[in-house]
Design brief:
With about 130 residues, the chain is α+β, with helices and mostly antiparallel strands. The protein is about 40% helix and about 30% strand. α2 packs across α3. The relative contact order is 0.17.
């Protein structure tokens, strides 16, 4: 986790560390990094709480998330409780360039976030 904090700070991002997780904001989007104490090679970065979903639109939300999952493949949008989350999980090897992985993850998650909002707003306008 210390390496990730250092990399983010070098880029002008101010992460906040709490026990077991890290939060930060990038392009006005909140991110969550979860550390797995039992497996230090497991990397997981999320955008939590993209949209609060009520029962009346749950099926429509799942259709949008599935379309984006099929389109992007490497990032997954899920329904976590009442909220849509975007996440990227990866097993890190000793050769992984962590800085590249972090910013690739951020870019892909931002793309998923933007696609979700575009498809959701466009789909709602059609209804």
């Amino acid at each position: 986790m210390e390496q990730i904090v250092k990399i983010l700070k070098e880029q002008g991002i101010c992460p906040i560390y709490e026990e077991g997780f890290l939060t930060f904001s990038y392009q006005n989007i909140n991110f969550l990094y979860l550390e797995d104490e039992r497996d230090k090679t497991f990397y997981s970065l999320y955008i939590p709480g993209i949209l609060k979903v009520d029962h009346t639109c749950k099926c429509d939300v799942l259709e949008v998330t599935n379309a984006i999952n099929n389109e992007l493949k490497i990032v997954k949008l899920i329904l976590n409780g009442e909220y849509v989350w975007a996440g990227m999980e990866q097993r890190l090897s000793s050769e992984t360039d962590l800085k590249k992985m972090i910013f690739f993850s951020i870019d892909v998650l931002v793309l998923a976030y933007e696609l979700f909002h575009t498809k959701w707003v466009h789909g709602r306008a059609l209804n």
